[in-house]
Design goal:
Blueprint: E1 2-5, E2 7-13, E3 17-21, E4 30-32, E5 48-50, H1 53-63, E6 68-70, E7 76-80, E8 88-94, E9 99-103, E10 125-130, H2 142-155, E11 160-164, H3 169-180, E12 185-187, H4 189-202, E13 209-210, E14 221-225, H5 232-241, E15 244-248, H6 256-261, E16 265-267, H7 275-285, E17 289-295, H8 297-306, E18 311-313
Parallel strand pairs: 3-4, 5-6, 9-10, 10-17, 11-14, 11-15, 12-13, 12-14, 15-16, 17-18
Antiparallel strand pairs: 1-2, 2-3, 7-8, 8-9
Helix pairs in contact: 1-4, 2-3
Length: 325
Amino acid sequence: MIRRKDGIHVEAGGSIGTVVADARSAVGDVNVVSHAHADHTFRRTPPTVCCSATTAALVEARTGARFEFTDSVPGIELLPAGHVVGSRAALVADETSDRSVLYTGDFSTRDRLYLSGFDPVPADVLVMETTYGDPAYRFPEQSALEGEIRDWLADHDEPLFLFGYSLGRAQKLQKLARQATDRPLVASDAIREVNDAIEAATGVAFDADPFDASDLAGDEIVVLPSNQARSDWVDDLVERVGGLKVGFSGWAVDESFRYRGGYDRTFPLSDHCDFDELLAVVEAVDPETVYTHHGFDESFAAALQKRGYEARPLLRDQTALSEFS
């Protein structure tokens, strides 16, 4: 039995009981946090959380929340998910039906700079995020995309303002910028706090200096959170120093992303799978049943059905694995 309520609920039965994954407040017998992005972490943390040590450290660095965690629960195997540092998928043994359920959380199969991609494993039931589960979203090959970004950064002397999530894309942008040029590199406090937590947990280092909007010399590369791209103070600053705004997201496949963010240039750099990679994961897992959620959940489920899979979007409050029509 699987439900999408506050998080994803898997009734595994037996000694495991109810597994609740990526909830904001719901509590189960086992509480899984797949990674440290805010929309996947608890507002009120339960007594014990099943997650990686790196995710626990990043949650504390980003929110101040401290909690007991374990990365070892009988009947649950955590697998590197390749989304951000510390991210994990969960393979759950359903003791009542002798079936296995693979919950991906957010994931990517691509190796990207310092991060290895997700390696799918067989499971009877696959519960997968499908953010880019539409054929329109096909990303360039990773090394070619990274090379294009480095070349573009090296070819522009203006102050450059690069926008990406504080945890994940912002760190990759710092690495790409440093590979492309020796220009001064600065980042917001929120991003540098995540940098410090990643370095402490993994040894992967970032050398961005603090960002001070009042003290830009004019040759900096500035890395800022993506949610600040349309802030008035950002637009005023970019205009004042004659800079360029650059956005990085899988949504950049669609030209409208550039205009929505007010960007001068965009690149489809993503921490998720594209459409073809999602299909490849389903083929590798070879499940009897697929539940999709997030993004293009309905259209991706329909695409799987055309390929002969028993698939449907995981609707809110859906309950039984047999509820296919």
